[in-house]
Amino acid sequence: MGVKLYYTTVTASREVKSQQAEVMRILESKSIQYELIDISVGGEVRDEMRSKAGNPTAVPPQIFNEDQYCGNYDMFSDAVEEDKVQQFLKMAC
């Protein structure tokens, strides 16, 4: 599996919930398979996400292709607006 979406099932933030749902909806609408990785299962998973993203304060959703960082919600949203989701996800066109 290539695309990985780090998300959380435990958050009080409506913004995070909304952003996660939007990323999933768009990926599904484009028939892009992805793996969900829930950071709420433990601090080590959250730390792994932050380390891979190169940001010690990164919050979900964070998107990767395997271990290669693609970006966060804002970056994904920009790619959707520019119709460059495949490039954003570092997928062959």
TrEMBL record:
One of its GO terms (cellular component) is ruffle membrane. It is found in: Cell projection, Ruffle membrane; Cytoplasm, Cytosol; Nucleus. The keyword Chloroplast does not apply. InterPro entries: Glut_rich_SH3-bd, SH3BGR, Thioredoxin-like_sf. SUPFAM superfamilies: Thioredoxin-like. It comes from the Eukaryota. Keywords: Acetylation, Cell membrane, Cell projection, Cytoplasm, Glycoprotein, Membrane, Nucleus. Its main location: membrane. Belongs to the SH3BGR family. This is SH3 domain-binding glutamic acid-rich-like protein 3. It comes from Salvelinus namaycush.
